[in-house]
Amino acid sequence: MNRRSNDIARATFKVEEVVNLTLEFYKRNWIEGLFLSSGVIRNPDYTMEALLRVVRSLRQEHSFGGYIHLKAIPGASPELIHEAGLYADRLSVNIEIPSESTLKLLAPEKSFSSVYTPMNSIHQGIVANRAETSPKRGAARFVPAGQTTQMIIGASPESDLQILRLASGLYHEQALKRVYYSGYIPINQDSRLPVISAPPLRRENRLYQADWLMRFYHFRYDEIVDDQNPHLDPDLDPKLVWALRHPEIFPVDLNRADYEMILRIPGVGVHSARLILQARRFGVVRTEHLKRMGVALKRAKYFIHDPSMPRSLQTVYPEQIRRQLLPGVGASQLSFFVEPSTPLLTTLAS
Amino acid sequence: MQNVFIQQETLVYDGSFEGFLCAVFEGIRLHLPVGRIQAEKRLVPEIFDELRAIHSEMDQAERVWKGIEKRGGAAVASMVRGAFLSELPGIETTLWHFLRKLFADPTGQFAHNMLDEHAHAVYSTARKVMGEVHRFLGFVRFQKSPQGQMFAVIDPAYNIVEMLASHFSARYPNLPWMIADSVRGLGIHYDGSNVQSFICNPRDLPSSAGASLGLAEASERDYQDLWNCYYDSINIVERKNTRLMVRQLPRKYWKYLPEKNR
Q1: CB-CB: which of A28, A185, A282 is closest to B115?
Q2: Mean pLDDT in each 10-residue stretch from start to end of chain A (350 residues)?
Q3: Among A92, A108, A159, B141, whose Cα sits 20 to 30 Å from the Cα of A243?
Q4: Would you kindly state where each structural domain of chain B is located, as residue ranges?
Q5: Pairing mode, if any, of strands B9-13 and B34-39?
């Protein structure tokens, strides 16, 4: 069962229509480029051939310089996919369901191998291309912006641990540039699919935060989720949750710690971590500098060593911090401070 | 008792970047007690102000510019230029303090000292300006005039129109286009090989910047309809998240979007 059994109207574009619309939209700077996908028409090769005609025409006849992201149709011949990779900046094959057993149940004609086969061949194509082409300008580049994939979250019972383990594998084995997590939105009724009232946007957001930790903050997936905690915390972001699970390594001394450690402080991003390293060559970095470097002190203040206080007095109490940072806590505190001032204002006005 | 009070001077320049560099040149050459540097058109005189008019000399400006590049590197030079284009009140004076400290540091590393208020102010102002340049690379929306020319009108907060030139000349190498800044009456024009800047009267431009079709050719309406149709069909209503949308795409830019101006 997939969109094939979905009884909705479909539109098919002619190749020239897609090419012309892309060029006219691009000329007006409404678009950066083209994201081209298709349901399977007749058979995979026929569909892939049609997609290929669009990108070939754009690149060769119209010397289109914009970005092109193309779906590789599972089951299409490797030669077609390879040629598409010479015109497109990015290719993607969607995993859809994060475990093979559920995939088999929901989409019997799809299997992990039908996804992994094109994915691996694109990966090998990229590796071979990077090894043989010199960085000279104009050398033919195969999929210069790399490949990506997408999986649907919440349509099947996988835990966040399973999802992040799969994503981590895709980043390491297939060297994907991005994994997209798409909260499930029901478009057709079937007893095999869950009935949900709203798409799991919160969960999707937490998964993206965990994904960022893996790609930019040097976290391993099993540091974020493990067998004891197979799901991400819906109330707090995964970096904060990790820090609360490891009170022993905090507070961090910004003026001594290495980049990796500074990067792990909740509220400190990649940009501010770099600024801290740069700034401390010139003097002592203090709390007042952090705010203008873009550090979110609301979270970071609990995890940073304050040089004016002895270290023995600075212990991180996870439970206390957790209570302080839960959503809604800040708002109720604010109203507590605002209310007493109201009568004062009215007295002044009268 | 000896009077140690030194009258500070306000250097008044013509408003151009070169003029500002000449003010820096004069300030350093004559060891002036610089209080402020201000553009002539934005001059707000204060009592007891000692004004000094600066004459723009291209070779002086050139020397200062080369000096910045040599001391701090190309990235620092473009940061100085970026911060200047913010046209924020007082930015010239901040840049003056920044440049004095930069020239006083033989290693040239001063520009990276984020603990210093001036270095940080220049850095963060330049970052804001570059952020706006980046957003306008997407929000410059071209329309076709009846003469077949692609044109766009924008009203950026900072004076960034000239910083859009290299991107769009590389993007449309064979297509003549022009971009006008309706706030400052400045613009750039590309004829298929070169970019030239021009000055225009803001009143000659369509009344509002953005997606409105003041001077456009009739077929523009058709393309906007097609675009809106595309926008509606890819839009997923269940995923609507206005807060996130406004954060990534502030409301002041919505006037450039055809789908928001039907």
Answers
A1: A282
A2: 52 87 93 90 90 94 94 91 94 88 77 88 92 70 93 91 95 95 80 75 95 97 95 95 93 94 96 93 90 91 81 77 81 42 37
A3: A159
A4: 9-133, 140-260
A5: parallel
